[in-house]
Amino acid sequence: MPSHLALLSCLLVLLLSLDKFLLHYLKRWLSGGGGSIIPRIPTGAFRPRSHRPMAAAGRWSETAMLVIDMQKDFVDPAMGSPVLVAGGEAVVPAVAEAVAVARERGIFVVWVVREHDPSGRDVELFRRHLYSGGKGPTVKGLKGAELADGLFIKEGDYKLVKTRFSAFFATHLDSVLKTQGIKNLVVVGVQTPNCIRQTVYDAVELDYEKVIVLIDATAAARPDIHLAFNILSFLSWGCTKSYTQLKA
Amino acid sequence: MPSHLALLSCLLVLLLSLDKFLLHYLKRWLSGGGGSIIPRIPTGAFRPRSHRPMAAAGRWSETAMLVIDMQKDFVDPAMGSPVLVAGGEAVVPAVAEAVAVARERGIFVVWVVREHDPSGRDVELFRRHLYSGGKGPTVKGLKGAELADGLFIKEGDYKLVKTRFSAFFATHLDSVLKTQGIKNLVVVGVQTPNCIRQTVYDAVELDYEKVIVLIDATAAARPDIHLAFNILSFLSWGCTKSYTQLKA
Amino acid sequence: MPSHLALLSCLLVLLLSLDKFLLHYLKRWLSGGGGSIIPRIPTGAFRPRSHRPMAAAGRWSETAMLVIDMQKDFVDPAMGSPVLVAGGEAVVPAVAEAVAVARERGIFVVWVVREHDPSGRDVELFRRHLYSGGKGPTVKGLKGAELADGLFIKEGDYKLVKTRFSAFFATHLDSVLKTQGIKNLVVVGVQTPNCIRQTVYDAVELDYEKVIVLIDATAAARPDIHLAFNILSFLSWGCTKSYTQLKA
Amino acid sequence: MPSHLALLSCLLVLLLSLDKFLLHYLKRWLSGGGGSIIPRIPTGAFRPRSHRPMAAAGRWSETAMLVIDMQKDFVDPAMGSPVLVAGGEAVVPAVAEAVAVARERGIFVVWVVREHDPSGRDVELFRRHLYSGGKGPTVKGLKGAELADGLFIKEGDYKLVKTRFSAFFATHLDSVLKTQGIKNLVVVGVQTPNCIRQTVYDAVELDYEKVIVLIDATAAARPDIHLAFNILSFLSWGCTKSYTQLKA
């Protein structure tokens, strides 16, 4: 059991209302307590023995942060988009802070966004009716496809365009990550039951060793949907232990 | 809204305790009332005007049934497998009946199974510790990989081997289905939050027009997990209408 | 034999020096003589009985043209790029004319281009040494990634970014094409033995019914390499007949 | 140039008539002279300094041998199959010996085979006319799908079923290889311009560091087709140096 937990993708589960607290925790974890999340190091690979900066750098170079769908049409109510995720706006500051901490640690930051053709010909079938007259959710070049206010792609970050739920579906994300030696993922963004979850499951199928969802930097339409995702995973994968492990 | 419902993958949601009732309903639906589930017919395709047998045959030839992971190690408690799905055994009769009805209607039946190398080298990383000494869950050739008692692959059915949650991950399933003109899927088997759900989402990403999960022929470890999956989808995709639509 | 030819991807083979003649032929073919290239029409689909404009429109709506890698770094010697394809510049006019004819017929035009990160982290391993100091072949935003002079993306066309040889590798191209009902492909661009050939073979694996390479609108480093590709395919697939079929 | 060669997939090119000589060479290479083919070792990985057995073991554990389509229908003229590769039978002994040497070195051997449904529903469109009455090329369970006489799958080897040219198309091969740390591939089997070449190019796209085609353990319909493949790659990728490198 411990060994499968060690390999399994896991979740941080805390009350949604404790954002401030969680971010502090996240920062502490990212700045040094993260040794426990990379339990399986391939034979011969660099194995740090202390918490010196260099050791940390080696460790985080194997981790990427996926920031998913943090675009105006998804998180900014002012856009009036039909694909707005009600809980999205509230986590923008948390996402911004998570990204800042990640950059500081040398974690590779990937901005996963949707950018669709004005015709809607590259969107899911069930959403194509939303596109007409050159407009529709996250059409490339329109304001709705831009990142939410307060979020920016910086030099060294990577922008990846997807057209379906999963960041891995019909994209070269796995190629970019694996050839850099990325083994662990931290996922933030919207929305929990669809794009977040589908990306997480694909990552497990693609054998990333650790896939962490930051519960306070992800969101869904409603808190109960957001939490239901985690409940499911707890029960079926038994990830609750990993939470304790991370907190330790 | 109605149009996106028409294109959207949907769910039948009824009380789990009403199995008998549901199967009767399913049979009735499969035998004629299914016209409403294929609302979007490509220009020029065969469009039936009555419920004559030929019309039905034309319609069902575009539908496939995916029977997922109904193997002894997953559903037979006697195997003592670590991957047993607690709720699995109870739905074996429902799956058997659903398959029988499907065959009767000319629906293409695909048995999606796991068959792993004794070394475990083709299983998810987090499950590899379960393989040693030539044994492990659903090892090819061992009893645990066989279909549950009462389920059989018949001539005309198709067996597809997968190595991850989704029936579409790293398999030729999409190729087999699309080149036959399959546009709609009916999904049965175990278990709801992982293999079932991942297959359903992949199917939506791959633009199958209808993806129906038969709620009484699928199962999870516990009823609340099984239902949580549906609750999620209801809330985020708004599929409740499809239930009414199917019943009509 | 006729039946497998009918389903097989084929090639136009004419002397490279006869460009002018070939384009005239191509235009004639695209404007009406193309009926023979779509021999297998699914039951019930629109089946034109004459060469009226409407019939042609119906037919060409199932065909897409893939324009591959026609970017300055690949075809413009003035760029001095290490990835220059020697024979590329000479076919720019032919590609431009082929695209013009395609648009006129209502064929969906897809501009397949490479756009790489300045770090080279999304390029093939064997090419990564070409990237440093924010520069390298077809880096996104730099001049070398632009289309060759004389080529333009127009409204209604589609731009698809790839990171490997094949237009289908880790992209959503198949998704865009299949959901539009595209069954046949016409391929132009550079270079024959790598990106062109790999795209063609992937298309055959993905079950496009017809994959036509326009021999005078594709190029390689040298004429013998360009032709060797066709010789290979002739001998192993027996496509020479299709040439006659197309000319007829 | 040396650096891109070092990363590039390469080819052994010798006269086809020198089989005996080549195999001796191959054996010598596999038994110790192979140090030069793994020039790029990730930071921190095991780097052997001598030719002691242990060092060799470490090195070869990162290499897999793909044996492609060595089935009766492809290489045994007695089967009278329409998919027979004329040059296939002649390389069976070479393939057998290459596999033996590979096993001896601890190289992971993968037997890539086609096994199709009797209906032909999982074969390429252009080959489906070859299937009827429960028969057709390499139908699962029929004699034509068996390995050629003299070839056997042993314990520790892996059998992988594919349905298209490439061993990577819609299969879990990449997943099996990458999670074992495989970085280099040696390819044998039939036939050069289709399944061999397509597999090799896919492997390059998937960022395997070295992809070696053993020219005397691969074959096509005719020697000139077999060689044309290599000529193409020489000219476009400049692999000739690798031949020298390997021979050294």
UniProtKB/TrEMBL annotation, chains A, B, C, D:
UniProt keywords, alphabetically: Signal
InterPro entries recorded for this chain?
Isochorismatase-like_dom, Isochorismatase-like_sf
Q: Could you name the domain of life of the organism this protein comes from?
A: Eukaryota
Cross-referenced Pfam families: Isochorismatase (PF00857)
Isochorismatase-like domain sequence ranges = 63-226
Signal sequence segment: 1-17
> Which family does the similarity line name?
Belongs to the isochorismatase family.
Listed name of the protein: Isochorismatase-like domain-containing protein
Protein's organism: Triticum turgidum subsp. durum (Durum wheat)
